[in-house]
């Protein structure tokens, strides 16, 4: 199974095509130029496949479909751009859309990486404390003619057990490190981390789905599509089950003859403040600009929620680490102080 192009690759391809088309160069000649520049790369192989299809009389839509590397949504937008004669505009809109998707993905990946890094650091500190520091205190206790008992003794025993299996822990640490690199260094891992961070039915996942829906609608409307056809293309664009059901409900109402803005409002796709904006946009003929504004607002709200999560995770991890270290040290120091006072 072929790997789909990621957001960064999609943004690069679409932006190059938009620039070429706006310069008055045909899509066929543009693909040829791009192919020459990237002849010995993976992108070059993809471009050769597109070029071969177009050379045989196909268009850009047929070429990108043949590769199997482009999302269905992108293929449909390219097809509509070619039919309407607005391919340059469509490619520019797609470039902006995937550029924003990449920025959002980077924000989410940083938000996932940060708590994982903090957790690894916390476990590392505890490991060193239990394996290296606690035996030092044990030697002090023995020099005073006693042994560590109670909670301190339990921590020491756990540390000794960890020390005896240090190779196993090293392997586990290496495995976690490799998993960490896979999650943030490969497309599949990035998608998994994004899905993990967006899990749940509300909050962040909802805002991201609204952002994608509004941005996608704005792009379709600016490309010359009517609102009803634009909404049809949004099916499958979001990962949120609730939003997907609401899009289906909206489409059903539109087929029943309900006006677009009323169908969107009745389906509950956006917040009340956004609904008022949609009504005004539909009546004034500026629905594309309204959807763009809604998309920007939802993206900003999603970003705020992401950083809010980070701001909560950092002090929580620090507090947990401080409490654990404090409890361990107190379990060692209090009996030791008692022994020293008796000797004194």
TrEMBL record:
InterPro entries named in the record: GspF/PilC, T2SS_GspF_dom, T2SS_GspF_sf
Protein keywords: Cell membrane, Membrane, Transmembrane, Transmembrane helix
Residues in Type II secretion system protein GspF domain copies: 13-135, 217-335
Recorded topology in the membrane: Multi-pass membrane protein
Name of the molecule in the record: Type II secretion system F family protein
GO cellular component, one term: plasma membrane
Subcellular location: Cell membrane
Transmembrane region(s): 111-131, 165-184, 317-340
UniProt organism field: Candidatus Merdiplasma excrementigallinarum
Superkingdom of origin: Bacteria
UniProt similarity note: Belongs to the GSP F family.
């Amino acid at each position: 199974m072929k790997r789909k192009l990621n957001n960064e690759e999609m943004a690069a391809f679409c932006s190059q095509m938009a620039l070429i088309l706006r310069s008055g160069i045909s899509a066929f000649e543009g693909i040829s130029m791009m192919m020459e520049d990237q002849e010995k790369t993976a992108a070059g192989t993809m471009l050769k496949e597109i070029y071969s299809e177009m050379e045989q009389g196909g268009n850009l839509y047929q070429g990108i479909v043949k590769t199997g590397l482009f999302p269905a949504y992108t293929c449909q937008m390219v097809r509509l751009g070619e039919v309407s004669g607005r391919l340059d505009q469509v490619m520019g809109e797609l470039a902006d859309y995937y550029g924003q998707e990449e920025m959002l993905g980077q924000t989410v990946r940083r938000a996932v990486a940060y708590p994982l890094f903090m957790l690894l650091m916390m476990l590392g500190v505890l490991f060193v404390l239990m394996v290296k520091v606690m035996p030092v205190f044990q030697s002090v206790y023995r020099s005073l003619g006693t042994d560590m008992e109670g909670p301190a003794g339990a921590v020491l025993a756990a540390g000794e057990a960890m020390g005896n299996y240090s190779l196993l822990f090293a392997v586990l640490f290496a495995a976690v490190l490799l998993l960490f690199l896979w999650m943030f260094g490969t497309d599949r891992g990035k998608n998994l981390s994004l899905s993990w961070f967006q899990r749940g039915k509300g909050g962040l996942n909802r805002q991201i789905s609204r952002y994608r829906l509004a941005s996608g609608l704005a792009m379709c409307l600016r490309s010359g599509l009517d609102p009803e056809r634009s909404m049809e293309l949004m099916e499958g664009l979001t990962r949120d089950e609730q939003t997907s059901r609401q899009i289906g409900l909206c489409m059903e109402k539109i087929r029943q003859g309900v006006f677009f803005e009323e169908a969107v409002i009745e389906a509950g796709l956006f917040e009340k403040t956004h609904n008022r904006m949609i009504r005004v946009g539909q009546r004034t003929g500026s629905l594309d600009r309204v959807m763009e504004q809604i998309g920007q607002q939802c993206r900003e709200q999603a970003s705020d929620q992401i950083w809010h999560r980070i701001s909560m995770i950092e002090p929580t991890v620090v507090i947990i680490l401080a409490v654990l270290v404090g409890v361990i040290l107190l379990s060692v120091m209090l009996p030791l102080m008692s022994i020293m006072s008796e000797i004194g």
